[in-house]
Design a protein that fits this description.
heterotrimer, A alpha/beta (274), B alpha+beta (84), C mainly alpha (479), A: 274 residues, alpha/beta, Rossmann fold, seven-stranded mixed β-sheet, C: 479 residues, mainly alpha, 2 domains, 4 strands, globular, binds guanosine-5'-diphosphate, binds magnesium ion
C-alpha cells in the first residue's frame, strides 16, 4: 500500500509532503491553543508518533506496557501551538483496569481538542473496537492508520478512504517510524482542531432494540441536565453499565464542568493542568 | 459439533468461541482482547513449561493462563483443523 | 448549580439509570461489546484486502516464536542471549576502558596536578579537588562508560525486536506458581535498566497485592548502577581463575549467574510474600505478544547512547563528584592522628569480615546509598587512602590505569580474596535499593510499612546470603 500524499479533506493551498511548517517545541507546552491526545491500543506506535511531532525522545519499545504515565510535549503548526499528550495504551474504555485509567480519564474528562487514535493496520478489527468507543465520546478524532509498512509485508492492503467514509472522521495512513504520512497527519489534526472538518462519526449499531431505547431515553435526560455535554450517549451507556467512576462524576457535578468546557478550547483541562 | 473449553485445544487447532464463563473484570478483559462469542481462535504456541498458551485471535497473539482458558467455551471447527 | 425545572437532579438521573439497568438486564455489557465487534468486523472487512500469497512474514514470525518458546530450546536460548550480551559487553569494553583509564587517570590527572602546582594551590585544595572530586568522577566514567555504551544498545535491540514479551511468556509459569502476576516478569525486565523505572512500571499490574510483590522484589533486577560492579568483579577476580582463552567467557558466565540468581530470588521472595504478608492467589493474566519488528540499528544505537548511557553516566557523575569530596575528607581529616575514614573502616571491618566482605565495602555501601554507581570508586579510593596509607606514598598509587592495577590494589592493599569478590557480587545483587528507588516506592505505595519492607527485606537477605557463603567457604577451607 502506498501512503497517499493527498487526502480528500486536505487544505488545497498548503504544500503537503514536507514538514516545513512543523516546528517541534520539545517539552515546551506554554500557551497552547489546542490540546491533542494520542490514544490507541498498546504497541501501535503512539510514542513514535509523539516523538515525530514533538522532537522528544519518549521511550518506545516493542512490548505492551512500555508507557505507563502520560507524557506531554508541544509543536507549532501554522502559527498555532499544540500541546500533545502521549497516553498509555488502552484496549477499551469500558473496562475498569487500573493501567488504563490514565488514558480513559484523559479522553473522557481531559477534553482534548483532538484525539488522535493510533491504530495498527495489521490488526484493524481489534483496534476498531477502541475507535468505535471513542467515537461515541467525541467526534473530534483523527485516525492515524500506522504500521502500514507491516501490513504491506503481510500482504494486506487497507483502503483508508473506505475506512474514513465508514468512520466519518479523517483516516491518515502512516509509517511513523520513517516519518511517512506525518505532514498529512498534521494537516488533519489542524483541520479538526480548527473546526474546519465536519465529522459524521459512526454510531454503534445496537442490535438489541430494548437497549437502544434505554440509551436514548437516558441520554435525552442527561442532555437536559448537563446542557452542552458532548457525549451524553456515552455517559448513558456507562450509567447503564453501572460504571462507578461515571456515577461519581454525575453525583459530584464533575460532568457539569465538562459540559461548560465544551467550548472550542478545553478550559476544563487548563484547570486540571494548573 | 463438540463443545469443550479452550484449554483442551491442542497446538494449531482452530475453534470458535461460544461462551465466556468468567465474570467481572476478567470477562471484560477477554472481550477487550476481541474474545467474544463467534470469534475464531487458534492455539499458536505453548510455553516451555506448558502454561500459559498463546492464541491467535483477530490477528494478534495473546497469551492466557490455563485457568482462564478453561472459562472459555468453544466449539471445534473441523474444516479448519487441517490448515497449517 | 444551574438546575432547570425540566432537568432531573443527579440523584433522579442515577435512580432512572438504575431502573433502566434492571430492565435491560445484566447482559448490557456483553450486548454492547457484541454490537461493537459486529460493526468493527464489518468496517474492517470493507477496508482490508488480503493477498493470500504474501503471508511469508507471518510464518517467519511464527517459526521464530516456535523456536524461542520451544520446550527444548526456550530456556537454553534465554541463557544464550544473556551470555552473548555480556560476553560482547565484557570483551568489547576491555580495550576502551583501558584507554579511557590511561587518559583520564594518567594524562589528565597528571596535567591537573601540574596546573595546581603552577598555580601553587595549597596541598589540601589540590587533594580535595583532584584526588577527591576529579578522581571519583574519572573512575566512574572509565569504569562505566564503555560497558554501558555496549550493553544498553544490545538490550534495546532485544527490546525493539520484541524478545522481552517472549521471555515473560516463557517464565510465566514460574511467576504463577510463586503467586505473582504474569506482568511481573515485564516489570522485572524494566528494572534491569533502573529499579525506580521498574517500580513505576508496576502500574501495569492491577491487583494491589501482586503489585506490592512486584515493587518489593524489583530490587533483585540488577540496575545500571550495579552492572559495572558485577562486570568489574567478574573480569578481574572470577576470570582470573580461568585459563586466559576462557577468561571473558567465564567473566560473562559469572555475571549471568548473578542475574539468574536475581530471577530466582525474585521468584522465591514473591512465593514467600504470597504465603505470608501478602497472602493470595495469582490473578488472571493476559499478555499480547507483539510481532517481531526488525529494529532500526542506527537509531537504536543513537538513542540508547544518548538517552540511556549518557543520562545514566551523568547521574553517576553528579553523584560521584560529591562522593569523591566526602571520601577525600574521610581520608584526610584526622582524629587522634588517624583519619575518620580509617576509624570508620576499622570499626566496621570485623563486621564486614564476618560476612566475607570488609570494612571498606560496608562504608562504600553507606556512601553509595544515593547511587549504586559510586560503589566501585568509593571502594578503590577508600582502600588506597586507608589501607594503603601505611604502605605507600600518597598520590603515587592513585593512578589505577588498568584492571591489573585495580586487582593489585584490592588484593595487595585491601587484602581481598576470591571470597570478597564473590560476596561483593552477591551483596551488590542483594541489598537495599538506592535512595531514588526508595523514594519512588514511597510515592507509589504511600505506605511506610511496605516501603520499609522493600528496604530491609533485601538488606537482611543480603547479609544472610553473604554470611552463609563466607562460612561455607571457610568450612571448606577455601579461604
Ligand atoms: N515497522 C514499523 N514499526 C513501527 C512503526 N511505528 C512504530 N513502530 C515500532 O513499534 C514499536 C512500538 O512503538 P511505540 O511507539 O513504543 O508504541 P506505543 O506503545 O503505542 O507507544 C516500536 O518498536 C516502534 O519502533 C511503523 O510505522 N512501522
Ligand atoms: Mg508508548
Amino acid at each position: 500500500m502506498t501512503v497517499h500524499t493527498t487526502t480528500s479533506h486536505a487544505c488545497e493551498t498548503c504544500p503537503l509532503g514536507t514538514n516545513a511548517q512543523l516546528i517541534r517545541l520539545g517539552i515546551n507546552v506554554e500557551g497552547w491553543n489546542y490540546v491533542v491526545a494520542l490514544a490507541g491500543n498498546p504497541n501501535t506506535g503512539k510514542s513514535t508518533v509523539f516523538n515525530a511531532l514533538t522532537g522528544l525522545r519518549q521511550h518506545t519499545g516493542n512490548w505492551p506496557g512500555k508507557t505507563v504515565t502520560r507524557a506531554e510535549g508541544g509543536f507549532l503548526y501554522q502559527d498555532e501551538r499544540f500541546k500533545l499528550v502521549d497516553l498509555p495504551g488502552t484496549y477499551s474504555l469500558l473496562s475498569s483496569s487500573l493501567d488504563e485509567e490514565v488514558a480513559r480519564d484523559f479522553i473522557l474528562f481531559g477534553q482534548p481538542d483532538v484525539t488522535v487514535i493510533v491504530v495498527d493496520a495489521t490488526r484493524l478489527e481489534r483496534n476498531l473496537n477502541l475507535v468505535l468507543q471513542i467515537l461515541e465520546i467525541t467526534d473530534r478524532v483523527v485516525v492515524c492508520l500506522n504500521l502500514v509498512d507491516e501490513a504491506e509485508r503481510h500482504g494486506m492492503t487497507v483502503d483508508d478512504r473506505a475506512l474514513a467514509r465508514d468512520l466519518g472522521v479523517p483516516v491518515i495512513p502512516t509509517v511513523a517510524r520513517r516519518g511517512e504520512g506525518i505532514p498529512e497527519l498534521l494537516a488533519a489534526i489542524h483541520e479538526v482542531a480548527s473546526g474546519a472538518y465536519k465529522a459524521r462519526p459512526h454510531r454503534i449499531n445496537n442490535h438489541n432494540p430494548a437497549l437502544a431505547q434505554a440509551i436514548d431515553t437516558l441520554a435525552a435526560q442527561i442532555e437536559a441536565r448537563f446542557e452542552g455535554l458532548p457525549n451524553a450517549r456515552w455517559v448513558a451507556m456507562r450509567l447503564l453499565d453501572g460504571d462507578e467512576r461515571i456515577l461519581e462524576a454525575v453525583r459530584s457535578g464533575e460532568l457539569g464542568i465538562l459540559a461548560r468546557g465544551a467550548q472550542p478550547v478545553g478550559s476544563a483541562l487548563q484547570q486540571e493542568a494548573a | 459439533m463438540e463443545t469443550r473449553t479452550l484449554d483442551t485445544l491442542s497446538r494449531h487447532q482452530t475453534a470458535v468461541v461460544t461462551a465466556l464463563h468468567s465474570d467481572g473484570a476478567e470477562r471484560r478483559r477477554m472481550m477487550d482482547l476481541g474474545i467474544v462469542p463467534g470469534t475464531a481462535i487458534r492455539v499458536e504456541m505453548v510455553s516451555p513449561l506448558g502454561d500459559p498458551v498463546a492464541y491467535l485471535v483477530r490477528g494478534s497473539v495473546v497469551a492466557l493462563r490455563r485457568e482462564q482458558a478453561a472459562k472459555i467455551e468453544i466449539t471445534l471447527q473441523p474444516a479448519e483443523e487441517t490448515q497449517p | 448549580m444551574m438546575a432547570e425545572p425540566a432537568a432531573a437532579t443527579p440523584d433522579d438521573l442515577i435512580k432512572q439509570a438504575e431502573a433502566l439497568r434492571s430492565a435491560v438486564g445484566a447482559d448490557f455489557h456483553d450486548d454492547l461489546m457484541l454490537s461493537i465487534y459486529t460493526d468493527a468486523a464489518r468496517i474492517a472487512d470493507h477496508a482490508v484486502t488480503r493477498e493470500g500469497a504474501a503471508r511469508g512474514r507471518f510464518y517467519l514470525d511464527r517459526t521464530i516464536d516456535r523456536l524461542v518458546t520451544s520446550r527444548v530450546w526456550g530456556f537454553p536460548m534465554m541463557l544464550f542471549m544473556l551470555l552473548a550480551v555480556f560476553w560482547i559487553t565484557i570483551t568489547g569494553a576491555n580495550v576502551p576502558s583501558q584507554m579511557l583509564g590511561d587518559f583520564l587517570m594518567g594524562a589528565v590527572y597528571d596535567a591537573l596536578h601540574s596546573v595546581a602546582q603552577a598555580l601553587s594551590f595549597p596541598w589540601w585544595l589540590a587533594g580535595f579537588l583532584i584526588d577527591g572530586v576529579y578522581l571519583a568522577t574519572a573512575w566512574v566514567v572509565s569504569v562505566m562508560l564503555p560497558p554501558m555504551a555496549i550493553f544498553f544498545p544490545l538490550f534495546t535491540l532485544l527490546e525493539d525486536l520484541g524478545y522481552l514479551p517472549r521471555v515473560a511468556f516463557n517464565l510465566d509459569r514460574l511467576f504463577h506458581k510463586a503467586g505473582a502476576h504474569g506482568k511481573q516478569s515485564l516489570t522485572m525486565m524494566m528494572g534491569y535498566g533502573c529499579n525506580a523505572a521498574g517500580v513505576v512500571a508496576t502500574r501495569i499490574i492491577d491487583s494491589p497485592r501482586e503489585r506490592l510483590i512486584a515493587i518489593i522484589t524489583n530490587n533483585f533486577s540488577i540496575c545500571n548502577g550495579r552492572w559495572p560492579t558485577l562486570i568489574l568483579m567478574g573480569t578481574i577476580f572470577i576470570a582470573a581463575t580461568a585459563p586466559p582463552a576462557l577468561a571473558s567467557f567465564i567473566a560473562a558466565t559469572s555475571v549471568v549467574a548473578v542475574a539468574v540468581l536475581g530471577i530466582f530470588l525474585t521468584l522465591a521472595v514473591s512465593w514467600f510474600l504470597s504465603r505470608t504478608w501478602l497472602k493470595g492467589e495469582a490473578s488472571t493474566f493476559s499478555l499480547e505478544l507483539p510481532p517481531y519488528r526488525p529494529p532500526q540499528i542506527l537509531k537504536t544505537l543513537y538513542t540508547s547512547i544518548i538517552d540511556r548511557t549518557l543520562i545514566v553516566l551523568w547521574r553517576a557523575v553528579t553523584m560521584a563528584a560529591p562522593a569523591g569530596a566526602v571520601i577525600w575528607l574521610l581520608g584526610n581529616v584526622t582524629l587522634d592522628g588517624v583519619s575518620i575514614g580509617e576509624h570508620l573502616v576499622n570499626l566496621l571491618n570485623p563486621v564486614g569480615l564476618l560476612f566475607g566482605l570488609n570494612g571498606v565495602i560496608l562504608v562504600a555501601y553507606i556512601v553509595a546509598i544515593p547511587a549504586n554507581e559510586i560503589v566501585i570508586p568509593t571502594i578503590l579510593m577508600l582502600t588506597m587512602m586507608v589501607g594503603g596509607s601505611s604502605m605507600v606514598q600518597p598520590g603515587v598509587m592513585l593512578e589505577l590505569e588498568s584492571n591489573t592495577e585495580v586487582y593489585n590494589v584490592l588484593v595487595g592493599m585491601g587484602g581481598w580474596t576470591l571470597l570478597t569478590a564473590v560476596n561483593l557480587m552477591l551483596f551488590s545483587l542483594i541489598h537495599n535499593p538506592c535512595s531514588t528507588t526508595i523514594l519512588t516506592i514511597w510515592n507509589e505505595t504511600k505506605n511506610l510499612r511496605w516501603t520499609a519492607m522493600a528496604v530491609f527485606l533485601p538488606l537482611a537477605l543480603g547479609f544472610g546470603v553473604t554470611f552463609l557463603t563466607a562460612n561455607v567457604a571457610r568450612l571448606l577451607g577455601l579461604v
